[in-house]
Structure prediction request, 90 residues.
Amino acid sequence: MDTVSVNKFRDNLKNFVEQVVNQHMPIKVTRRAGEDFIVVSADDWEREQETLYILQNSDLMRQISASMDTHLGGDGYRPTAEEVDEIIGI
Prediction:
């Protein structure tokens, strides 16, 4: 993550916003007389919030763990060739 001063951020706002949105790299902005802050794209923020929701939801985490165990054991559902063709054809 890049770190810039609030003055540099202000002077180059458009370039920094383009970097955050296009490269999906947050920027830490430092201030001399206050708290630092992070600039992140809306898409990245929403994705992080969804991830945090899942990680904090114990029922979902148990389902994911059980699914992984099933997959690693080779006991999971295996689609037929026709089902795979239908999925790929979408």
Notes: The mean pLDDT is 93.
